Amino acid sequence: MRTALIQGSGGLGSALAQVVIEARVFDQVILAGRGQWSMDAPHTQIRTVPVDLTSDQSVAEAAGRVRSWCERLHLVITTAGVLTDPSRGIAPEKKLTELTREAFQSVMEVNCLGPFLWLKALYPLIKHREPVTIATLSARVGSIGDNRLGGWHSYRASKAAQNMLTRNLALELGRLNPNAVVVGLHPGTVDTGLSKPYQKGVSPEHLFTPAQSAAYLWSVIQALTPADSGQVFDWKRVRIEP
Questions:
Q1: Which domain holds residue 83?
Q2: Helix H segments across 109-152?
Q3: 3-state helix, strand and coil shares in percent for the chain, rounded to the nearest 5
């Protein structure tokens, strides 16, 4: 049985789940997130499980449910991410003087630590020798070499750290499974709550609906090979430098 697991019930996560379900290349699709899912796809078994990636207990319980449903995962996508959250004082910092310990730790926890602790909990299901693709949502601003503007300290740092863990996991799984692919994906600017405050300077042709971005990312995922493992690609499948 081929099983896909999509984490994140937000706009892009839901759109990716719909694309994967409609592709009908998996016998089972598991949807994990904090929100409600509304999916309908004949001939594909859909399961849902609540998970909060900032809670170790929630992650452990959700991973246990997933392990009870399948022996192996063949596609894992995580879409967790935060850029702005006024309730927690999180906003892209323009200057170093705006950096705070609390905001930095929160952004790092959601964008980097949470997704990889989730993958740690799922490790028995991704440690096999069948083809498996693992993708986390990264961002071009996480590239150190591409950084020309500075600022956005917490978000940039969290994505750079995420990219390093992507590379580490790619090397680790690659030693066990030559068919494993672990990548970061930059979805472009998607019309969701995460990017809403920062869309003013984005041209209409580069502001994607969740469905558009999901379709682009699915095309990228389908074209990946083990030679791509450990790298970060944008929605056009252009490699982003570290």
A1: 3-240
A2: 114-121, 123-126
A3: 45, 20, 35
Residue range 30-77, pLDDT digits in tens? 999 987 776 665 556 999 999 999 999 999 999 999 999 999 999 999
Residue-wise pLDDT tens digits, 198-215? 555 555 666 789 999 999
Q: Is the pTM of this model over 0.90?
A: yes
Map 58-102 to HEC letters: HHHHHHHHHHHHCCCCCEEEECCCCCCEHHHCECCCCCHHHCCHH
When pLDDT is cut at 50, 70 and 90, the band that residue 226 belongs to is: very high
Total tally of structural domains belonging to the chain = 1
- On the 0-12 / 13-18 / 19+ scale of CB atoms within 10 A, 215 is middle
CATH number at residue 37: 3.40.50.720
Instruction: Indicate the SS3 state at residue 202.
Output: coil
Yes or no: say if 187 and 235 are a contact pair by the CB < 8 Å rule. yes
- CA–CA distances in Å: residue 94 to residues 98, 150, 152, 154, 156: 7, 8, 6, 10, 12
Residues in the chain: 242
